[in-house]
Write a structure and sequence with these properties.
Blueprint: H1 2-16, H2 25-53, H3 63-94, H4 110-116
Helix pairs in contact: 2-3
Length: 117
């Protein structure tokens, strides 16, 4: 899981949010890891609600009902909630729009390309 989180951080920084940021790398990485940890809780919370608050588990319900409830709450609701939270939190806290980390340079004007050739 650690390798996956590190790879996710590098790919998000270099691809998804390459024009955003401005924080020091260690601060950015620490925020990324904290938000990823909160995201794991967000993924697990709907399943816990389904199992323990709504009591959708055997012997109170059939095994089929339990498995369907687990799939919907864990794999659909949990993944969507965690994904939405992580996207919002990464944009808001880890890779903010202020203080752009690096600009993608514009292509040189056509005149200077012609002179260089």
């Amino acid at each position: 899981m650690l390798v996956a989180t590190i790879a996710s951080y590098v790919l998000n920084r270099e691809w998804s949010f390459r024009t955003r940021g401005g924080r020091e790398r260690h601060h950015e990485a620490a925020l990324f890891f904290v938000i990823s940890g909160v995201g794991v809780v967000m993924y697990s919370a709907p399943l816990a609600v389904s199992r323990y608050l709504l009591d959708l588990k055997v012997p109170g319900v059939s095994l089929l009902t339990q498995e369907i409830a687990d799939f919907v709450s864990g794999q659909i609701v949990g993944v969507l909630a965690g994904m939405a939270f992580r996207w919002w939190a990464f944009r808001r806290f880890v890779f903010p729009d202020q203080g752009v980390r690096r600009q993608i340079p514009p292509p040189p004007p056509a005149e200077s390309r012609a002179e260089a050739a």
